[in-house]
Amino acid sequence: QVQLVESGGGLVQAGGSLRLSCAASGSIRGINAMGWFRQAPGNQRELVARITSDGSTNYVDSVKGRFSISRDNARNTLYLQMNSLKPEDTAVYFCHALIITTSVTAVRSYWGQGTQVTVSS
Known about the structure:
Elements: E1 2-7, E2 10-13, E3 18-26, E4 28-39, E5 46-52, E6 57-59, E7 67-72, E8 77-82, E9 91-101, E10 108-111, E11 115-120
Parallel strand pairs: 2-11
Antiparallel strand pairs: 1-3, 3-8, 4-5, 4-9, 5-6, 7-8, 9-10, 9-11
C-alpha cells in the first residue's frame, strides 16, 4: 500500500558528506511528518531529525550544525544532508513517515528498509 525506499548510504571518510533520500510511494493522501532514525549495533534506535508538514524541524543534539533535513512535498521525498561526518555517525539509517492513506483517514506509521552509513576513522 505504502512504501518508503531509502538511498544514498555508503562508506565515507570522517569529515566527508552524504545525502540520504527517502521516496514515499503508494496510496498517499497526505504525509504529516517524516524523519530519519538511526541504529548502530548494540544501540537503541534514535531519532536523528524530523520535519513536519508545516516545515518545522528538530534534530538530535549530536548532529545539530552538521545535518540538515528537507522535503519535496510534490514528490513525497525526504532528504538528509549529512556533513562533517564522524565515526560515531555510523549506523543504519531508517526513513520514517506518518502517513494518511487514500483509503483510511487515520495516521499510520511507516518505515523504510534502512540504508547503511559507515564513516571510517
